[in-house]
Amino acid sequence: MICLWCDEPILPGERFVDCLSGATHQECMLRQVVGSVAHQMKLCNCFIAGSKAGDPDTVTRREAARVAADLWFRFTQFHLDD
User: Fold this and answer.
1) Which pTM was predicted?
2) pLDDT tens track for 10-25
3) Which of 80, 3, 19, 28 is nearest to 11 (CA)?
4) What would the pLDDT profile of 20-52 be if each residue is shown by its tens digit?
5) Count of domains in the chain?
6) Does 4 fall in a domain?
7) Which residues contact 22 (CB under 8 A, 6 or more apart)?
């Protein structure tokens, strides 16, 4: 399976969400809901007019999703294993 968000393979043992339109890594799905690191830190143009803050061009969509998910977990102290 290929993740709909990052276009990387979903490997055996990786957590994913299976939707009608296809599968998405768990962290990629969460990134779509909670937003980028810049959004969570209120630095994007949703909060600051004209801001260009977002996912850096130097990381893949999956890497950006992992960092965004990690930040959200740290802020909320919520874990999907709980």
Assistant:
1) 0.83
2) 999 999 999 888 999 9
3) 3
4) 889 999 999 999 999 999 999 999 999 999 998
5) 1
6) no
7) 1, 2, 4
